[in-house]
Amino acid sequence: MDQDVSASKKRDGRTASVSGIHSLKDHYLGQLDLVPNLKKLLGTATLVDDCVKSASDYSYSADKYAGDRFRIIGDASAFIDPLFSSGVHLALLGGLTAASTIAASMRGHCSEQEAAEYHHIKVGAAYTRFFLVVMSAYQQIRSQSVDILSDVDEDNFDRAFDIIRPVIQGTADVGQNLTKSDLSKTLEFCQVSPAVWAPVDPEMQAEVSNRFGAELVNPAAPIFKPEELDAIIGSDDEDALNVIKRINARKVVDPIFRGTSSLETEVVKGFVTRLERGNLGLIQVSQQEE
């Protein structure tokens, strides 16, 4: 709803009220009357809590994206930025994980608690990844003549990735445990923006692989620490460093662009998504491997 229209309706509500009080809950329920089809879908559902909240900033997130017999998706779960068109992508991803975890719970693939936790973690990880990309872009835009994101030999590299690794691997609670400030500080060390676009071509990558071994350029390998690179590559080997910087950076952001394949390969609490027509749900990794 347009902000001015919403404010006007709230004023009208206070004016019409005998007590002069028109709470946010009153406003919410009044607007709900304007969408009868949605009310029909809600059926006999009732508000669990009398407290209704609203977000005034462009960016926000819920404390939890799932719980006992409910899932939150789309803008109801979180919103990052109005300029990067992230809403549709993240809403569809959230819708798919919601559907698969609901089906998994109903079909006995796992417990409802496990299904809800899977959805919560997957949605949180997806928004965190996109947040990293958006933040890197904004920081670079605001200071175009400077590489905002630090180099691979940043002293705090280890601390930064200790913070972010559980998030990008989808194994951490990204609700209250990781704040916007934490992410902003982490991003300063993740060298996402300049490294992703480092001047690297397939020939350079092949040459580095031949010289230092295929494991160094393997996208599935862990993120390399500064001391590990120092022991393998000289600081004056610019081509090799650019190759590894780019691969390291893409380990952070690439899952955004893998589409549904990341749901079938990224393990969360021992489960991956089963994207099988007629048998949508979750599957334990051990069962998948068999």
UniProtKB/TrEMBL annotation:
On whether Oxidoreductase is a keyword of this UniProt record, the answer is yes
Task: State the reactions this protein catalyses.
Answer: melleolide F + FADH2 + chloride + O2 = 6'-chloromelleolide F + FAD + 2 H2O + H(+)
Q: Which InterPro entries match?
A: FAD/NAD-bd_sf, Flavin-dep_Halogenase_NPB
GO annotation terms (biological process) = secondary metabolite biosynthetic process
Keyword Hydrolase listed? The answer is: no
Keywords per UniProt: Oxidoreductase
Q: Recorded GO terms, molecular function?
A: flavin-dependent halogenase activity
Entry similarity comment: Belongs to the flavin-dependent halogenase family.
* Protein name per Swiss-Prot or TrEMBL: FAD-binding domain-containing protein
This protein's species is Coprinopsis marcescibilis (Agaric fungus)
